[in-house]
Structures are given as structure tokens and as C-alpha cells.
Amino acid sequence: MNRKGCGVLGAVLGLLLSGNMAWADYNPMLAGKGHLGVSLESELSSRDMKIDGLKERERVARQSVELAYGVIGNLDLFVKFGLGKIEFEEADTSSQIRPLTGIGLRSTMPFGGGYFAGFSAQYLSGKVSKFEQNSVTLTMEDKWTETDIRLLAGSKDMIKDPEPDLRFYTGLRFSGRTDKLPSSTAKQDSSMGGVIGVDYSESKIFRFNVELGTLDRSNILIRFGIVF
Predict the structure, then answer these.
(1) What H or E segment, with its residue span, contains residue 81?
(2) ∠ CA 79-81-133 to the nearest 5 degrees?
(3) SS3 17
(4) pTM of the model
(5) CATH: 2.40.128, 3.40.1360, 1.10.10, 1.10.287. Which one for 3-227?
(6) Which of 61, 148, 166, 212 is 20 to 30 A removed from 44 (C-alpha atoms)?
(7) With b meaning 16 or more CB within 10 Å and e meaning fewer, what string describes 112-149?
């Protein structure tokens, strides 16, 4: 991302973390200060990649565990551990299931009337060493990394009487993926996309989240979590 883009994201994060803002009694989609959140995530995604000027469709399926901790009232830091599988559609190859790791942060700012704005950033990485093509096992190393930055806005008051703790949100997503292969490098073709989602919580303990994304990559994400 260029210097101007980093400056804009830094300003947004600074606003979200500002101690001069009038915070509401709750911080949507966060574990909260001093609390630990544990989430199980399942995601299917596909994206266009460029390899030596040629296009390739890459599909990823993964399941992970996220551990989030509220360091202050409106900021969570998190780590992820999981398993994932890669498939290159044009080459008709699919990888073995291998571990992945990640780190990130998430912040939200509540406004009056149940509205809120949010920011998140995430970095994931992993390595695959074996693929299968036409029932033949290939030894091919793929070291991959992913970045994901989001600016979100949403509301919790779109459904009333009785009013559930249900939040709808949408936003912009800036993402990237790089796969370092033995003789070439694959890079994500498009970096900007959009997301829509719904987030439900019960008694500020249980959480269920479904999200859809498009443009930079097509994906569906399902998350179930508990806050301690």
C-alpha cells in the first residue's frame, strides 16, 4: 500500500482509538477490555491471481481458531491458528491440508442511534509442500501470505420489538495474497472489494457471524465465538 493510503488508515485508526470520543456502553463485535474471545471460523474463498502475466483462479478452504483479547475498551488484538487447503483451478492441482497462522487487530466506534464504524487489519501466512494433480502427488513448495484491511459501518437497530442484539454491517476491504512458487510468484489480481455481514450476540457471551465478500475475492465466512 502506498504512503498516502497508509496515512489515511493511520488517521482512521487514531480516530477510533481517541480517548476524547464519547463511547457508548457497548463496543459491537469486540471481546471488550480485559475479556478473552475464542472463535471458530470456517471460510471458503476464490480469487484471480497473476502468474507470469497469466491468470489463474485460486480457491482456498480453511478452518481456524481465533483468540482475541480486549486491550482497551474499543480495541481487540488477536492471533489465529488453523488448517487450510489450496486449489489452482486452471492447473487442476490441489494441495495437502497444512497449518496456517495469523495476527491482527479490530476496533469499533459506537455512535448514537445504534450505529457504529469499524476498522480491522489481519496478516496470515502458511506453507504447502505437496500438491495432487490427476491422482499424482507433486512435490512443490508454496509459501503464501495474505493481508486484509477493512473499513466498516453498521447498525444494531434495524430490527425491533422484540429487539435482538443483531448487527448488520457493510464496508470496503483492501486485500492481497502472494504465493511464492518454485519458479514463479503468483499475486492477487485485484486488491479492493466489499463485504456485507450480520453479527448476532446473546447476553454478551455467545456470538455468531456470517459474512460475504466480493470483487477482490469472493468468499463466505462463518464464525461462532464465546467471550469470557
Answers:
(1) strand 75-88
(2) 140
(3) helix
(4) 0.85
(5) 2.40.128
(6) 166
(7) eebbbbbbbbbebebebeebeeeeeeeeeebebebbbb
Q: Which residue bears the cell 456470538?
A: 207
**Long-range contacts, 157-165 (Cβ 8 Å, 24+):** 157/113, 157/114, 164/200, 165/200, 165/201, 165/202, 165/204
For residue 36, the cross-strand partners are: 69
Q: Are strands 115-133 and 136-155 parallel, antiparallel or unpaired?
A: antiparallel
- Identify the pLDDT of residue 33: 87
CA atoms within a 13 Å half-sphere pointing along the CA-CB vector of 189: 16
Nearest partner of 170 among 141, 142, 193, 138, judged by Cα:
193
Backbone angles phi, psi at 4, to 5 degrees: -65, -45
Alpha helices in the chain (DSSP H): 3-17
pLDDT tens for 23-64 read 333 566 888 889 999 999 999 999 999 998 899 999 999 999
Nearest CA to 150 among 14, 9, 41, 5? 9
Measured distance between the N- and C-terminal CA atoms of the chain, rounded to whole angstroms? 36
